[in-house]
Amino acid sequence: xxxxxxxxxxxxxxxxxxxxxxxxxxxxxxxxxxxxxxxxxxxxxxxxxxxxxxxxxxxxxxxxxxxxxxxxxxxxxxxxxxxxxxxxxxxxxxxxxxxxxxxxxxxxxxxxxxxxxxxxxxxxxxxxxxxxxxxxxxxxxxxxxxxxxxxxxxxxxxxxxxxxxxxxxxxxxxxxxxxxxxxxxxxxxxxxxxxxxxxxxxxxxxxxxxxxxxxxxxxxxxxxxxxxxxxxxxxxxxxxxxxxxxxxxxxxxxxxxxxxxxxxxxxxxxxxxxxxxxxxxxxxxxxxx
Amino acid sequence: xxxxxxxxxxxxxxxxxxxxxxxxxxxxxxxxxxxxxxxxxxxxxxxxxxxxxxxxxxxxxxxxxxxxxxxxxxxxxxxxxxxxxxxxxxxxxxxxxxxxxxxxxxxxxxxxxxxxxxxxxxxxxxxxxxxxxxxxxxxxxxxxxxxxxxxxxxxxxxxxxxxxxxxxxxxxxxxxxxxxxxxxxxxxxxxxxxxxxxxxxxxxxxxxxxxxxxxxxxxxxxxxxxxxxxxxxxxxxxxxxxxxxxxxxxxxxxxxxxxxxxxxxxxxxxxxxxxxxxxxxxxxxxxxxxxxxxxxxxxxxxxxxxxxxxxxxxxxxxxxxxxxxxxxxxxxxxxxxxxxxxxxxxx
Lengths: 289, 347
Known about the structure:
Chain A is mainly alpha-helical. Chain A is built from eleven helices and two strands. By secondary structure, chain B is mainly α. Chains A and B meet through helix 3, helix 4, helix 9 and helix 11 of A and helix 7, helix 13 and helix 15 of B.
Protein backbone atom coordinates (compact mmCIF):
# COMPACT_ATOMS: atom_id res chain seq x y z
CA UNK A 1 0.00 0.00 0.00
CA UNK A 2 2.09 2.88 -1.26
CA UNK A 3 -0.88 5.20 -1.73
CA UNK A 4 -1.22 6.31 1.87
CA UNK A 5 2.50 6.90 1.98
CA UNK A 6 2.25 8.99 -1.19
CA UNK A 7 -0.46 11.14 0.41
CA UNK A 8 1.61 11.64 3.57
CA UNK A 9 4.71 12.56 1.58
CA UNK A 10 2.60 14.87 -0.58
CA UNK A 11 1.23 16.72 2.42
CA UNK A 12 4.75 17.20 3.77
CA UNK A 13 5.94 18.40 0.35
CA UNK A 14 3.07 20.88 0.49
CA UNK A 15 4.81 22.54 3.42
CA UNK A 16 7.76 23.38 1.17
CA UNK A 17 5.46 24.66 -1.58
CA UNK A 18 3.63 26.84 0.94
CA UNK A 19 6.96 28.19 2.13
CA UNK A 20 7.93 28.95 -1.47
CA UNK A 21 4.55 30.51 -2.19
CA UNK A 22 4.16 32.68 0.93
CA UNK A 23 6.33 35.49 -0.45
CA UNK A 24 4.51 35.47 -3.80
CA UNK A 25 1.21 35.66 -1.96
CA UNK A 26 2.39 38.49 0.30
CA UNK A 27 3.71 40.65 -2.55
CA UNK A 28 0.53 40.23 -4.52
CA UNK A 29 -1.60 40.88 -1.46
CA UNK A 30 0.13 44.12 -0.53
CA UNK A 31 0.91 45.68 -3.91
CA UNK A 32 -0.69 43.52 -6.61
CA UNK A 33 2.70 42.65 -8.04
CA UNK A 34 3.16 39.15 -9.39
CA UNK A 35 6.90 38.70 -9.09
CA UNK A 36 7.94 36.51 -12.02
CA UNK A 37 11.49 36.44 -10.65
CA UNK A 38 10.20 34.79 -7.48
CA UNK A 39 11.30 31.28 -8.43
CA UNK A 40 14.76 32.20 -9.59
CA UNK A 41 15.31 34.28 -6.45
CA UNK A 42 14.66 31.13 -4.39
CA UNK A 43 17.30 29.45 -6.52
CA UNK A 44 19.68 32.36 -5.83
CA UNK A 45 19.18 31.65 -2.11
CA UNK A 46 19.90 27.98 -2.74
CA UNK A 47 23.15 28.92 -4.49
CA UNK A 48 24.09 31.17 -1.57
CA UNK A 49 23.56 28.25 0.79
CA UNK A 50 25.49 25.94 -1.52
CA UNK A 51 28.39 28.39 -1.69
CA UNK A 52 28.60 28.76 2.10
CA UNK A 53 28.39 25.02 2.72
CA UNK A 54 30.54 23.78 -0.10
CA UNK A 55 33.22 26.46 -0.28
CA UNK A 56 33.31 27.86 3.26
CA UNK A 57 32.28 24.62 5.00
CA UNK A 58 29.45 26.08 7.03
CA UNK A 59 26.80 23.80 8.40
CA UNK A 60 23.67 23.85 6.26
CA UNK A 61 21.29 25.36 8.81
CA UNK A 62 23.79 27.99 9.90
CA UNK A 63 23.69 29.48 6.38
CA UNK A 64 20.17 30.73 7.11
CA UNK A 65 21.50 33.49 9.38
CA UNK A 66 23.28 34.95 6.37
CA UNK A 67 20.97 33.99 3.50
CA UNK A 68 17.70 35.28 5.01
CA UNK A 69 18.99 38.79 5.82
CA UNK A 70 20.85 38.93 2.50
CA UNK A 71 17.71 38.07 0.55
CA UNK A 72 15.64 40.51 2.62
CA UNK A 73 18.19 43.22 1.80
CA UNK A 74 18.01 42.35 -1.89
CA UNK A 75 14.22 42.58 -1.64
CA UNK A 76 14.33 46.02 -0.06
CA UNK A 77 16.70 47.39 -2.69
CA UNK A 78 14.84 45.66 -5.51
CA UNK A 79 11.57 47.26 -4.48
CA UNK A 80 12.98 50.77 -4.13
CA UNK A 81 15.19 50.55 -7.21
CA UNK A 82 13.09 48.64 -9.74
CA UNK A 83 9.61 47.68 -8.63
CA UNK A 84 8.39 51.01 -7.24
CA UNK A 85 9.35 52.78 -10.48
CA UNK A 86 7.69 49.94 -12.43
CA UNK A 87 4.47 50.33 -10.43
CA UNK A 88 4.32 53.92 -11.61
CA UNK A 89 4.53 52.77 -15.23
CA UNK A 90 1.18 51.04 -15.39
CA UNK A 91 -0.13 47.51 -15.49
CA UNK A 92 2.30 45.72 -17.81
CA UNK A 93 5.54 47.22 -16.47
CA UNK A 94 5.92 45.19 -13.21
CA UNK A 95 5.28 41.96 -15.15
CA UNK A 96 7.81 42.85 -17.86
CA UNK A 97 10.43 44.07 -15.37
CA UNK A 98 10.20 41.00 -13.11
CA UNK A 99 10.25 38.71 -16.15
CA UNK A 100 13.33 40.49 -17.52
CA UNK A 101 14.94 40.15 -14.10
CA UNK A 102 14.20 36.42 -14.02
CA UNK A 103 15.89 35.89 -17.39
CA UNK A 104 18.90 38.01 -16.40
CA UNK A 105 19.42 36.21 -13.07
CA UNK A 106 18.90 32.74 -14.57
CA UNK A 107 21.52 33.37 -17.23
CA UNK A 108 23.96 34.98 -14.80
CA UNK A 109 23.70 31.90 -12.58
CA UNK A 110 24.35 29.81 -15.66
CA UNK A 111 27.49 31.83 -16.42
CA UNK A 112 28.89 31.63 -12.90
CA UNK A 113 27.78 28.21 -11.69
CA UNK A 114 27.38 26.42 -15.07
CA UNK A 115 24.25 24.46 -15.94
CA UNK A 116 25.28 21.55 -13.67
CA UNK A 117 23.08 20.59 -10.77
CA UNK A 118 24.16 21.21 -7.19
CA UNK A 119 22.70 20.52 -3.79
CA UNK A 120 23.29 21.69 -0.24
CA UNK A 121 24.82 18.93 1.87
CA UNK A 122 22.99 18.53 5.15
CA UNK A 123 24.56 15.40 6.65
CA UNK A 124 22.52 12.69 8.31
CA UNK A 125 19.26 14.65 8.60
CA UNK A 126 18.68 14.10 4.88
CA UNK A 127 18.30 10.37 5.39
CA UNK A 128 16.95 10.10 8.96
CA UNK A 129 13.36 9.02 9.14
CA UNK A 130 10.68 8.22 11.65
CA UNK A 131 9.12 4.80 11.27
CA UNK A 132 5.34 4.94 11.58
CA UNK A 133 4.04 1.70 10.08
CA UNK A 134 5.63 -0.77 7.71
CA UNK A 135 4.44 1.27 4.74
CA UNK A 136 4.85 4.76 6.04
CA UNK A 137 7.98 6.41 7.28
CA UNK A 138 8.38 10.13 7.55
CA UNK A 139 11.67 11.77 6.68
CA UNK A 140 12.91 14.01 9.48
CA UNK A 141 13.87 16.68 6.98
CA UNK A 142 10.47 16.58 5.22
CA UNK A 143 8.75 16.92 8.58
CA UNK A 144 11.00 19.80 9.58
CA UNK A 145 10.26 21.58 6.28
CA UNK A 146 6.55 21.13 6.82
CA UNK A 147 6.71 22.47 10.37
CA UNK A 148 8.77 25.46 9.24
CA UNK A 149 6.22 26.09 6.47
CA UNK A 150 3.31 26.08 8.93
CA UNK A 151 5.18 28.26 11.43
CA UNK A 152 6.11 30.81 8.74
CA UNK A 153 2.54 31.02 7.43
CA UNK A 154 1.20 31.37 10.99
CA UNK A 155 3.82 33.96 11.86
CA UNK A 156 3.14 35.99 8.73
CA UNK A 157 -0.59 35.85 9.34
CA UNK A 158 0.00 37.00 12.91
CA UNK A 159 2.25 39.81 11.75
CA UNK A 160 -0.33 41.05 9.27
CA UNK A 161 -3.27 40.88 11.65
CA UNK A 162 -1.76 41.82 15.02
CA UNK A 163 1.09 44.26 14.57
CA UNK A 164 1.30 47.91 13.67
CA UNK A 165 3.48 47.18 10.64
CA UNK A 166 1.08 44.51 9.43
CA UNK A 167 -1.87 46.85 9.85
CA UNK A 168 -0.11 49.47 7.77
CA UNK A 169 0.43 46.87 5.04
CA UNK A 170 -3.21 45.87 5.02
CA UNK A 171 -4.25 49.50 4.97
CA UNK A 172 -1.99 50.18 1.99
CA UNK A 173 -3.34 47.10 0.27
CA UNK A 174 -6.96 48.21 0.80
CA UNK A 175 -6.54 51.82 -0.27
CA UNK A 176 -3.08 53.16 -0.86
CA UNK A 177 -4.15 56.77 -1.28
CA UNK A 178 -6.12 56.82 1.96
CA UNK A 179 -3.25 55.07 3.74
CA UNK A 180 -0.89 57.74 2.50
CA UNK A 181 -3.19 60.44 3.87
CA UNK A 182 -2.97 58.73 7.26
CA UNK A 183 0.79 59.18 7.22
CA UNK A 184 1.90 55.84 5.81
CA UNK A 185 4.81 55.98 3.39
CA UNK A 186 3.66 53.52 0.72
CA UNK A 187 7.03 53.14 -0.90
CA UNK A 188 8.64 52.12 2.40
CA UNK A 189 5.75 49.78 3.18
CA UNK A 190 6.20 48.14 -0.21
CA UNK A 191 9.94 47.83 0.33
CA UNK A 192 9.31 46.27 3.73
CA UNK A 193 6.80 43.82 2.27
CA UNK A 194 9.23 42.76 -0.46
CA UNK A 195 12.00 42.43 2.12
CA UNK A 196 9.83 40.10 4.20
CA UNK A 197 8.74 38.20 1.08
CA UNK A 198 12.31 37.66 -0.06
CA UNK A 199 13.47 36.79 3.46
CA UNK A 200 10.95 33.94 3.34
CA UNK A 201 12.14 33.11 -0.17
CA UNK A 202 15.66 32.89 1.27
CA UNK A 203 14.49 30.40 3.87
CA UNK A 204 12.49 28.46 1.30
CA UNK A 205 15.36 28.46 -1.21
CA UNK A 206 17.83 26.98 1.27
CA UNK A 207 15.33 24.27 2.20
CA UNK A 208 14.73 23.62 -1.50
CA UNK A 209 18.47 23.28 -2.04
CA UNK A 210 18.76 20.89 0.88
CA UNK A 211 15.89 18.77 -0.36
CA UNK A 212 16.68 18.40 -4.06
CA UNK A 213 19.30 19.00 -6.68
CA UNK A 214 18.97 22.36 -8.38
CA UNK A 215 20.33 24.08 -11.47
CA UNK A 216 20.00 27.70 -12.67
CA UNK A 217 16.74 26.90 -14.49
CA UNK A 218 15.13 25.36 -11.39
CA UNK A 219 13.47 28.73 -10.81
CA UNK A 220 10.95 27.97 -13.59
CA UNK A 221 9.37 25.00 -11.85
CA UNK A 222 9.67 26.75 -8.47
CA UNK A 223 7.68 29.74 -9.71
CA UNK A 224 5.05 27.50 -11.29
CA UNK A 225 4.57 25.38 -8.13
CA UNK A 226 4.41 28.46 -5.89
CA UNK A 227 1.87 30.05 -8.24
CA UNK A 228 -0.25 26.90 -8.34
CA UNK A 229 -0.27 26.72 -4.53
CA UNK A 230 -1.46 30.35 -4.36
CA UNK A 231 -4.24 29.90 -6.94
CA UNK A 232 -5.42 26.52 -5.65
CA UNK A 233 -5.61 27.97 -2.15
CA UNK A 234 -7.31 31.18 -3.21
CA UNK A 235 -5.87 34.65 -3.72
CA UNK A 236 -5.38 36.68 -0.59
CA UNK A 237 -5.49 33.86 1.90
CA UNK A 238 -2.23 32.70 3.49
CA UNK A 239 -3.82 29.63 5.09
CA UNK A 240 -5.28 28.95 1.66
CA UNK A 241 -1.76 28.99 0.26
CA UNK A 242 -0.77 26.31 2.79
CA UNK A 243 -3.79 24.19 1.80
CA UNK A 244 -2.99 24.85 -1.87
CA UNK A 245 0.58 23.70 -1.35
CA UNK A 246 -0.63 20.52 0.29
CA UNK A 247 -3.17 19.80 -2.45
CA UNK A 248 -0.47 20.31 -5.08
CA UNK A 249 2.01 18.17 -3.13
CA UNK A 250 -0.48 15.33 -2.76
CA UNK A 251 -1.48 15.54 -6.44
CA UNK A 252 2.16 15.31 -7.52
CA UNK A 253 3.02 12.51 -5.10
CA UNK A 254 -0.04 10.43 -6.01
CA UNK A 255 0.59 11.12 -9.72
CA UNK A 256 4.16 9.96 -9.37
CA UNK A 257 2.88 6.85 -7.61
CA UNK A 258 0.80 6.03 -10.71
CA UNK A 259 3.76 6.61 -13.02
CA UNK A 260 6.94 8.51 -12.14
CA UNK A 261 6.59 10.55 -15.35
CA UNK A 262 3.09 11.76 -14.38
CA UNK A 263 3.82 13.54 -11.08
CA UNK A 264 4.19 17.09 -12.34
CA UNK A 265 1.61 16.64 -15.10
CA UNK A 266 -1.07 15.51 -12.61
CA UNK A 267 -0.17 18.43 -10.33
CA UNK A 268 -0.70 20.81 -13.25
CA UNK A 269 -3.96 19.12 -14.25
CA UNK A 270 -5.33 19.39 -10.70
CA UNK A 271 -4.44 23.07 -10.79
CA UNK A 272 -6.25 23.53 -14.14
CA UNK A 273 -9.27 21.62 -12.80
CA UNK A 274 -9.47 23.95 -9.80
CA UNK A 275 -9.11 26.91 -12.16
CA UNK A 276 -11.95 25.59 -14.32
CA UNK A 277 -14.39 24.54 -11.59
CA UNK A 278 -13.47 26.66 -8.59
CA UNK A 279 -11.57 29.67 -9.94
CA UNK A 280 -11.67 31.51 -6.62
CA UNK A 281 -9.61 28.77 -4.99
CA UNK A 282 -10.38 26.52 -2.09
CA UNK A 283 -10.23 29.18 0.61
CA UNK A 284 -11.19 32.37 -1.04
CA UNK A 285 -11.06 35.82 0.43
CA UNK A 286 -12.39 38.79 -1.51
CA UNK A 287 -9.57 40.44 -3.41
CA UNK A 288 -9.83 42.92 -6.22
CA UNK A 289 -6.97 42.67 -8.62
CA UNK B 1 -23.23 74.55 -39.54
CA UNK B 2 -20.79 73.51 -36.85
CA UNK B 3 -17.02 73.53 -37.10
CA UNK B 4 -16.95 69.79 -36.64
CA UNK B 5 -18.70 69.24 -39.95
CA UNK B 6 -15.89 70.98 -41.76
CA UNK B 7 -13.23 68.81 -40.18
CA UNK B 8 -11.82 66.05 -42.31
CA UNK B 9 -10.75 62.88 -40.60
CA UNK B 10 -8.12 60.86 -42.37
CA UNK B 11 -6.00 57.87 -41.52
CA UNK B 12 -3.10 57.76 -43.93
CA UNK B 13 -0.23 60.21 -43.62
CA UNK B 14 2.66 61.13 -45.88
CA UNK B 15 4.90 58.84 -43.87
CA UNK B 16 2.43 55.99 -44.19
CA UNK B 17 2.34 56.28 -48.00
CA UNK B 18 6.13 56.33 -47.96
CA UNK B 19 6.03 53.36 -45.59
CA UNK B 20 3.80 51.39 -47.93
CA UNK B 21 6.15 52.03 -50.84
CA UNK B 22 9.19 51.08 -48.74
CA UNK B 23 7.45 47.93 -47.47
CA UNK B 24 6.58 46.82 -51.02
CA UNK B 25 10.13 47.49 -52.24
CA UNK B 26 11.70 45.64 -49.27
CA UNK B 27 9.40 42.63 -49.68
CA UNK B 28 10.03 42.57 -53.45
CA UNK B 29 13.80 42.67 -52.88
CA UNK B 30 13.60 39.96 -50.21
CA UNK B 31 11.48 37.83 -52.53
CA UNK B 32 14.48 37.60 -54.85
CA UNK B 33 16.51 36.23 -51.91
CA UNK B 34 16.89 32.66 -53.21
CA UNK B 35 18.49 34.03 -56.41
CA UNK B 36 20.90 36.34 -54.61
CA UNK B 37 21.56 34.97 -51.10
CA UNK B 38 23.44 31.81 -50.17
CA UNK B 39 21.65 28.95 -48.43
CA UNK B 40 23.03 29.81 -44.98
CA UNK B 41 21.87 33.40 -45.37
CA UNK B 42 18.40 32.26 -46.40
CA UNK B 43 18.17 29.96 -43.39
CA UNK B 44 19.26 32.80 -41.10
CA UNK B 45 16.67 35.09 -42.64
CA UNK B 46 13.99 32.45 -42.00
CA UNK B 47 14.97 32.64 -38.31
CA UNK B 48 14.64 36.43 -38.46
CA UNK B 49 11.27 36.13 -40.25
CA UNK B 50 9.99 33.73 -37.59
CA UNK B 51 11.11 36.18 -34.90
CA UNK B 52 9.21 38.99 -36.64
CA UNK B 53 6.07 36.84 -36.79
CA UNK B 54 6.45 35.85 -33.12
CA UNK B 55 7.09 39.44 -32.01
CA UNK B 56 4.14 40.72 -34.03
CA UNK B 57 1.85 38.10 -32.50
CA UNK B 58 3.04 38.73 -28.96
CA UNK B 59 2.59 42.44 -29.50
CA UNK B 60 -0.97 41.85 -30.70
CA UNK B 61 -1.63 40.09 -27.41
CA UNK B 62 0.20 42.39 -25.00
CA UNK B 63 0.57 45.68 -26.84
CA UNK B 64 -3.03 45.87 -28.00
CA UNK B 65 -4.87 43.31 -25.89
CA UNK B 66 -3.05 44.08 -22.61
CA UNK B 67 -2.41 40.37 -21.98
CA UNK B 68 1.13 39.35 -21.05
CA UNK B 69 1.48 35.69 -21.98
CA UNK B 70 4.57 33.65 -21.28
CA UNK B 71 2.96 30.55 -22.73
CA UNK B 72 2.75 31.21 -26.47
CA UNK B 73 5.30 28.42 -26.95
CA UNK B 74 2.31 26.08 -26.61
CA UNK B 75 1.15 27.26 -30.04
CA UNK B 76 4.65 27.32 -31.52
CA UNK B 77 4.87 23.65 -30.57
CA UNK B 78 1.39 22.83 -31.89
CA UNK B 79 2.28 24.48 -35.22
CA UNK B 80 5.59 22.66 -35.48
CA UNK B 81 4.26 19.24 -34.46
CA UNK B 82 1.09 19.83 -36.49
CA UNK B 83 3.08 20.42 -39.68
CA UNK B 84 5.29 17.37 -39.16
CA UNK B 85 2.40 15.07 -38.26
CA UNK B 86 0.08 16.21 -41.04
CA UNK B 87 2.77 16.21 -43.73
CA UNK B 88 4.76 13.12 -42.71
CA UNK B 89 2.25 10.79 -41.05
CA UNK B 90 -0.89 11.78 -42.93
CA UNK B 91 1.02 12.41 -46.16
CA UNK B 92 -0.60 15.73 -47.01
CA UNK B 93 1.38 18.25 -49.08
CA UNK B 94 3.54 20.27 -46.65
CA UNK B 95 2.41 23.59 -48.05
CA UNK B 96 -1.22 22.66 -47.39
CA UNK B 97 -0.25 21.14 -44.04
CA UNK B 98 0.94 24.56 -42.80
CA UNK B 99 -2.47 26.28 -42.92
CA UNK B 100 -4.11 23.15 -41.48
CA UNK B 101 -1.65 23.19 -38.54
CA UNK B 102 -2.41 26.87 -38.02
CA UNK B 103 -6.15 26.21 -37.96
CA UNK B 104 -5.64 23.35 -35.48
CA UNK B 105 -3.77 25.73 -33.19
CA UNK B 106 -6.71 28.13 -33.45
CA UNK B 107 -9.11 25.32 -32.52
CA UNK B 108 -6.96 24.49 -29.46
CA UNK B 109 -6.61 28.10 -28.40
CA UNK B 110 -10.34 28.75 -28.11
CA UNK B 111 -11.11 26.41 -25.17
CA UNK B 112 -7.71 27.24 -23.63
CA UNK B 113 -8.68 30.91 -23.62
CA UNK B 114 -11.64 30.18 -21.36
CA UNK B 115 -9.27 28.65 -18.83
CA UNK B 116 -6.54 31.29 -19.13
CA UNK B 117 -8.99 34.22 -18.98
CA UNK B 118 -9.95 33.23 -15.45
CA UNK B 119 -6.67 34.83 -14.44
CA UNK B 120 -5.46 38.34 -15.06
CA UNK B 121 -2.25 40.33 -15.03
CA UNK B 122 0.81 38.49 -13.80
CA UNK B 123 -1.19 35.43 -12.83
CA UNK B 124 -2.51 35.21 -16.40
CA UNK B 125 1.14 35.18 -17.49
CA UNK B 126 2.10 32.22 -15.27
CA UNK B 127 -1.20 30.46 -16.03
CA UNK B 128 -0.45 30.49 -19.77
CA UNK B 129 2.97 29.09 -18.97
CA UNK B 130 1.44 26.22 -16.96
CA UNK B 131 -0.82 25.44 -19.93
CA UNK B 132 2.21 25.36 -22.24
CA UNK B 133 3.95 23.00 -19.80
CA UNK B 134 0.90 20.75 -19.77
CA UNK B 135 0.88 20.61 -23.59
CA UNK B 136 4.60 19.75 -23.52
CA UNK B 137 4.19 17.05 -20.87
CA UNK B 138 1.33 15.48 -22.83
CA UNK B 139 3.28 15.56 -26.11
CA UNK B 140 6.20 13.91 -24.30
CA UNK B 141 3.88 10.99 -23.51
CA UNK B 142 2.69 10.57 -27.12
CA UNK B 143 4.64 7.98 -29.07
CA UNK B 144 3.12 9.08 -32.40
CA UNK B 145 4.88 12.42 -31.88
CA UNK B 146 8.19 10.83 -30.94
CA UNK B 147 7.58 11.25 -27.20
CA UNK B 148 10.49 12.87 -25.35
CA UNK B 149 13.01 12.68 -28.17
CA UNK B 150 10.94 14.45 -30.83
CA UNK B 151 10.52 13.93 -34.57
CA UNK B 152 12.36 14.73 -37.77
CA UNK B 153 10.54 16.49 -40.59
CA UNK B 154 10.92 14.25 -43.63
CA UNK B 155 8.35 15.46 -46.17
CA UNK B 156 10.58 18.21 -47.57
CA UNK B 157 13.72 16.08 -47.79
CA UNK B 158 12.56 14.67 -51.13
CA UNK B 159 13.36 18.08 -52.62
CA UNK B 160 16.91 19.09 -53.43
CA UNK B 161 18.39 21.14 -50.57
CA UNK B 162 18.58 24.34 -52.63
CA UNK B 163 14.97 24.08 -53.70
CA UNK B 164 13.80 23.10 -50.20
CA UNK B 165 15.54 26.06 -48.58
CA UNK B 166 14.17 28.44 -51.21
CA UNK B 167 10.60 27.19 -50.71
CA UNK B 168 10.83 27.50 -46.94
CA UNK B 169 12.28 30.98 -47.39
CA UNK B 170 9.42 32.13 -49.59
CA UNK B 171 6.87 30.53 -47.30
CA UNK B 172 8.39 32.41 -44.37
CA UNK B 173 8.41 35.71 -46.22
CA UNK B 174 4.73 35.22 -47.03
CA UNK B 175 4.13 34.41 -43.35
CA UNK B 176 5.69 37.71 -42.29
CA UNK B 177 3.55 39.65 -44.77
CA UNK B 178 0.41 37.84 -43.59
CA UNK B 179 1.21 38.36 -39.87
CA UNK B 180 1.89 42.08 -40.28
CA UNK B 181 -1.06 42.60 -42.63
CA UNK B 182 -3.50 40.75 -40.36
CA UNK B 183 -2.36 42.76 -37.34
CA UNK B 184 -2.64 45.99 -39.30
CA UNK B 185 -6.12 45.22 -40.61
CA UNK B 186 -7.34 43.99 -37.21
CA UNK B 187 -6.14 47.13 -35.50
CA UNK B 188 -7.64 49.39 -38.16
CA UNK B 189 -10.98 47.67 -37.79
CA UNK B 190 -13.67 48.26 -35.23
CA UNK B 191 -11.86 45.75 -33.01
CA UNK B 192 -8.75 47.93 -32.95
CA UNK B 193 -10.80 50.98 -32.04
CA UNK B 194 -12.35 48.95 -29.23
CA UNK B 195 -8.90 48.01 -27.98
CA UNK B 196 -7.84 51.64 -27.87
CA UNK B 197 -10.88 52.28 -25.70
CA UNK B 198 -10.15 49.24 -23.51
CA UNK B 199 -6.55 50.35 -23.05
CA UNK B 200 -7.66 53.79 -21.89
CA UNK B 201 -10.42 52.56 -19.59
CA UNK B 202 -11.71 49.00 -19.73
CA UNK B 203 -14.78 49.67 -17.56
CA UNK B 204 -15.85 52.74 -19.51
CA UNK B 205 -15.26 50.94 -22.81
CA UNK B 206 -17.39 48.04 -21.60
CA UNK B 207 -20.20 50.35 -20.58
CA UNK B 208 -20.17 51.93 -24.04
CA UNK B 209 -20.72 48.58 -25.70
CA UNK B 210 -17.18 47.37 -26.42
CA UNK B 211 -17.25 43.63 -25.87
CA UNK B 212 -14.08 43.47 -23.84
CA UNK B 213 -13.71 39.73 -23.25
CA UNK B 214 -14.80 38.82 -26.78
CA UNK B 215 -12.28 41.24 -28.28
CA UNK B 216 -9.52 39.80 -26.12
CA UNK B 217 -10.49 36.28 -27.08
CA UNK B 218 -10.32 37.09 -30.79
CA UNK B 219 -6.83 38.51 -30.34
CA UNK B 220 -5.78 35.52 -28.22
CA UNK B 221 -6.90 33.06 -30.90
CA UNK B 222 -5.30 35.03 -33.75
CA UNK B 223 -2.07 35.30 -31.77
CA UNK B 224 -2.08 31.55 -31.12
CA UNK B 225 -2.55 30.89 -34.84
CA UNK B 226 0.27 33.28 -35.74
CA UNK B 227 2.61 31.60 -33.26
CA UNK B 228 1.69 28.22 -34.79
CA UNK B 229 2.62 29.64 -38.20
CA UNK B 230 6.00 30.63 -36.78
CA UNK B 231 6.32 27.16 -35.25
CA UNK B 232 5.73 25.58 -38.66
CA UNK B 233 8.39 27.88 -40.15
CA UNK B 234 10.86 26.85 -37.44
CA UNK B 235 10.16 23.15 -38.01
CA UNK B 236 10.53 23.50 -41.78
CA UNK B 237 13.78 25.41 -41.33
CA UNK B 238 15.45 23.09 -38.82
CA UNK B 239 13.79 19.81 -39.97
CA UNK B 240 13.69 18.65 -36.34
CA UNK B 241 11.17 19.19 -33.55
CA UNK B 242 12.04 18.39 -29.94
CA UNK B 243 9.63 19.01 -27.07
CA UNK B 244 12.20 20.54 -24.73
CA UNK B 245 13.24 23.18 -27.25
CA UNK B 246 10.01 23.89 -29.16
CA UNK B 247 8.00 24.26 -25.91
CA UNK B 248 10.78 26.19 -24.15
CA UNK B 249 9.82 29.31 -22.23
CA UNK B 250 12.85 30.84 -23.96
CA UNK B 251 10.54 31.65 -26.90
CA UNK B 252 8.44 33.82 -24.63
CA UNK B 253 11.57 35.59 -23.43
CA UNK B 254 12.51 36.23 -27.08
CA UNK B 255 9.06 37.58 -27.90
CA UNK B 256 8.96 39.86 -24.88
CA UNK B 257 12.42 41.26 -25.52
CA UNK B 258 11.68 41.81 -29.21
CA UNK B 259 8.47 43.69 -28.49
CA UNK B 260 9.66 45.70 -25.48
CA UNK B 261 12.93 46.72 -27.12
CA UNK B 262 11.33 47.49 -30.48
CA UNK B 263 8.36 49.36 -29.06
CA UNK B 264 5.22 47.82 -27.57
CA UNK B 265 1.85 48.69 -29.03
CA UNK B 266 3.06 49.63 -32.50
CA UNK B 267 3.19 47.49 -35.63
CA UNK B 268 6.68 48.72 -36.56
CA UNK B 269 8.12 48.04 -33.08
CA UNK B 270 8.29 44.23 -33.22
CA UNK B 271 9.90 44.38 -36.69
CA UNK B 272 12.60 46.73 -35.42
CA UNK B 273 12.92 44.69 -32.21
CA UNK B 274 13.31 41.41 -34.09
CA UNK B 275 16.10 42.86 -36.21
CA UNK B 276 17.91 44.21 -33.11
CA UNK B 277 17.39 40.93 -31.25
CA UNK B 278 18.63 38.86 -34.18
CA UNK B 279 21.69 41.08 -34.67
CA UNK B 280 22.63 40.90 -30.98
CA UNK B 281 22.10 37.15 -30.93
CA UNK B 282 24.38 36.64 -33.94
CA UNK B 283 26.95 39.18 -32.80
CA UNK B 284 27.24 37.85 -29.23
CA UNK B 285 26.85 34.18 -30.12
CA UNK B 286 30.45 33.43 -29.12
CA UNK B 287 29.86 34.63 -25.58
CA UNK B 288 27.36 32.00 -24.41
CA UNK B 289 24.18 33.33 -22.93
CA UNK B 290 25.43 36.86 -22.30
CA UNK B 291 23.15 38.15 -25.06
CA UNK B 292 20.17 37.12 -22.93
CA UNK B 293 21.61 38.98 -19.93
CA UNK B 294 22.13 42.09 -22.06
CA UNK B 295 18.70 41.82 -23.68
CA UNK B 296 17.06 41.29 -20.29
CA UNK B 297 18.72 44.36 -18.83
CA UNK B 298 17.85 46.33 -21.96
CA UNK B 299 14.21 45.25 -21.64
CA UNK B 300 14.08 46.35 -17.99
CA UNK B 301 15.69 49.72 -18.74
CA UNK B 302 13.46 50.35 -21.74
CA UNK B 303 10.32 49.41 -19.79
CA UNK B 304 11.22 51.90 -17.05
CA UNK B 305 12.77 54.73 -19.02
CA UNK B 306 11.72 54.45 -22.66
CA UNK B 307 8.34 52.72 -22.75
CA UNK B 308 7.88 53.34 -26.47
CA UNK B 309 11.05 51.43 -27.29
CA UNK B 310 13.45 52.00 -30.15
CA UNK B 311 10.68 52.65 -32.65
CA UNK B 312 9.41 55.38 -30.34
CA UNK B 313 12.80 57.06 -30.65
CA UNK B 314 13.01 56.65 -34.42
CA UNK B 315 9.50 57.86 -35.07
CA UNK B 316 9.69 60.84 -32.71
CA UNK B 317 7.11 59.31 -30.37
CA UNK B 318 4.72 58.32 -33.08
CA UNK B 319 4.94 61.20 -35.51
CA UNK B 320 6.10 58.91 -38.27
CA UNK B 321 3.60 56.13 -38.86
CA UNK B 322 4.27 53.51 -41.44
CA UNK B 323 1.10 51.66 -40.50
CA UNK B 324 -1.56 54.18 -39.51
CA UNK B 325 -4.15 52.52 -37.31
CA UNK B 326 -5.45 55.67 -35.66
CA UNK B 327 -7.56 58.57 -36.84
CA UNK B 328 -6.24 62.05 -37.31
CA UNK B 329 -7.84 65.34 -38.18
CA UNK B 330 -6.70 66.54 -41.56
CA UNK B 331 -7.35 70.21 -40.83
CA UNK B 332 -6.99 70.77 -37.09
CA UNK B 333 -9.08 73.43 -35.39
CA UNK B 334 -6.37 76.02 -34.94
CA UNK B 335 -5.54 75.94 -38.65
CA UNK B 336 -9.22 76.05 -39.42
CA UNK B 337 -9.64 79.06 -37.16
CA UNK B 338 -6.87 80.93 -38.95
CA UNK B 339 -8.49 80.49 -42.33
CA UNK B 340 -11.99 81.35 -41.25
CA UNK B 341 -11.63 83.46 -38.09
CA UNK B 342 -15.20 83.45 -36.94
CA UNK B 343 -17.24 80.37 -37.57
CA UNK B 344 -20.06 82.33 -39.04
CA UNK B 345 -23.44 80.85 -38.40
CA UNK B 346 -25.07 80.22 -41.74
CA UNK B 347 -28.62 79.64 -42.88
